[in-house]
Amino acid sequence: MSKASVAAFTVPPVEKSVVVPCNPARAFEAFTAEIAQWWPIKTHSVAQAKAKSVRIEPAVDGRVVETAEDGSESEWGRVLAWSPPSGFSLTWHPGRPAEPHTVLELRFTAEAGATRVRLIHRGWEALGADAQAKRDDYSGGWDAVLIRHFGGYFEHAS
Amino acid sequence: MSYHNIALAALSDPTRREILEKLRDGPRAVGEIAAGMTISRPAVSQHLKLLKDAGLVAETRQGTRHYFAIAPEGIGALRAYLDELWGDALAAFARHVEKERKP
Predict the structure, then answer these.
(1) ipTM for the complex?
(2) pLDDT in tens, chain B (103 residues)
(3) Residues of B in Cβ contact (< 8 Å) with A11
(4) Which residues of B touch chain A, with CB atoms under 8 Å apart?
(5) How distant is the alpha carbon of residue A64 from its chain centre?
């Protein structure tokens, strides 16, 4: 088999960025305190169409919590670091138990009168070593991340 | 069910993930894949069919033997989808911030 095929199994960090027309403090506030106003909750959530809202509790160990229309809550992750306006990081495990989890990091940096928001989603390899994902013969990275994490998060009812 | 959901559903089963992992080092015949697994060979074949239908595995024939291999295109498409999800979320965030600049 070619190297390319094997390489397809390694999952590098997902990195995204967007520039928004405000200062970092405002961008941080909009991202966190106002997350319910912009997060695509009906599609990017555990309860999907029945999801109502999401909030981030603004402190270390604060929860990221989705609320469904019936009032039930679902934890997506926990705050690992909270440093407004420069950034924050979270554990990330929507629709799944807290372990294993990936790590999401957001950085807000001033750029030419605006703010660049960088999103880095990583932690795949670390998950491979997690006891739950551990298997003797192969890396559990793919398994733990794409399946337990994203699979559980985004899988719709067929 | 859209493509990525079929692929994610295919991967939601631990046995199928185990099969996929066995293909990491190269194409394998059904018998080789089934060796060491607790399920029967016909069951392995069923799982392989599902993985093939989901675009994650490709089947080739050499003489009378059938080999199964990871389909990089299918895996790549799935990764692109996951990548896109964050793009969607950030685009929604940018629209939210930009709204307040308008009168």
Answers:
(1) 0.71
(2) 455 667 777 777 778 878 888 887 789 999 999 998 999 999 999 999 999 998 889 999 888 888 999 887 887 777 777 677 788 889 999 999 988 776 5
(3) 79
(4) 1, 4-5, 8-9, 11-12, 17, 20-21, 23-27, 69-70, 72, 75-76, 78-79, 82-83, 85-98, 101
(5) 10
